[in-house]
Amino acid sequence: MNEATLGGRFTFPGTSLTVHRIGYGAMQLAGPGVWGPPEDPAAAVAVLREAVAAGVNHIDTSDYYGPHVTNQIIREALHPYPQGLVIVTKLGGRRPPDKSWQPAISPEELAAGVHDNLRNLGLDALDIVNYRVMGSGHGTAEGSIAEQVTVLAGLRREGLIRHIGVSNVTAAQLSEAQAITDVVCVQNNYNLAHRHDDALIDDLNRAGIAYVPFFPLGGFTPLQSSTLSSVAGRLGSTPMQVALAWLLHRSPNILLIPGTSSVAHLRENLAAGQLALSPQDLAELDGIAAASALQH
Ligand SMILES: NC(=O)c1ccc[n+]([C@@H]2O[C@H](COP(=O)([O-])OP(=O)(O)OC[C@H]3O[C@@H](n4cnc5c(N)ncnc54)[C@H](OP(=O)(O)O)[C@@H]3O)[C@@H](O)[C@H]2O)c1
Question: What's the whole-model pTM score?
Fold first, then answer.
């Protein structure tokens, strides 16, 4: 794949880390419910190798996917890592045996999480760590994150973390984090139909900070919309490709980490960088969020 097909490049602010705007999110590589090993571990390894072979150099993960399983698959598939591969992980959660998602936010849990990531990924330092606020499920909830971000900043001074991001945050929480440390990326829930962060994305773009939407395709329930399907049909592409292309058009600081367990879907998602959307396409696609807001 050439440069343009992966959406061009983005450099995280104040870093030497430059990535293609189309990356890969590894959460779908664990077993059902993001728990345990996948049914076909060789297929998971194949997806990662295909992604990197196609030029992907930004992989999003967490040691609580599986737990541990996803990072171990990344290590098996890609270690020793190619020059320039940026692996972004996150802290702030844990998965008890009942498979629920619980906060892990004490200084001890955050430090243990860094060491779990380092061990399972086979790294000496983590490129970027997002502090993921557990909030309310996949939604944000106000509340101070100063204590946790301060712990991460300390782990950064120790050299275990190179750069810090935040995830599932409000604008107030982002400001609080920025008063403590440089923040290079924000990872929140955002897609064609879920546009709560529109103003935040524009603010971050002005500051040169990456915005990395999670659930870019709708997450566990992929996006479905007759408008999306009709634009895709007109362009001879798939709805998922249009959803990703729309994000690339939305703002130059948006980086994509679509998740998939399938090589066929991976190829389709990477090809979304080649899709040009006309002003008419964009206007129709912008109508999806308006319609979805009316339903809620
Ligand atoms: N910070 C956070 O709190 C947070 C939360 C959630 C996720 N994340 C990160 O964000 C990444 C992306 O989110 P996500 O994986 O949950 O959701 P997503 O990328 O919005 O969608 C993934 C779903 O779409 C399907 N899919 C992918 N490509 C497709 C295609 N071309 N055609 C049809 N279906 C397709 C996948 O199934 P198949 O496997 O069958 O392709 C999977 O069911 C994750 O992998 C993870 O790294 C972060």
Answer: 0.97
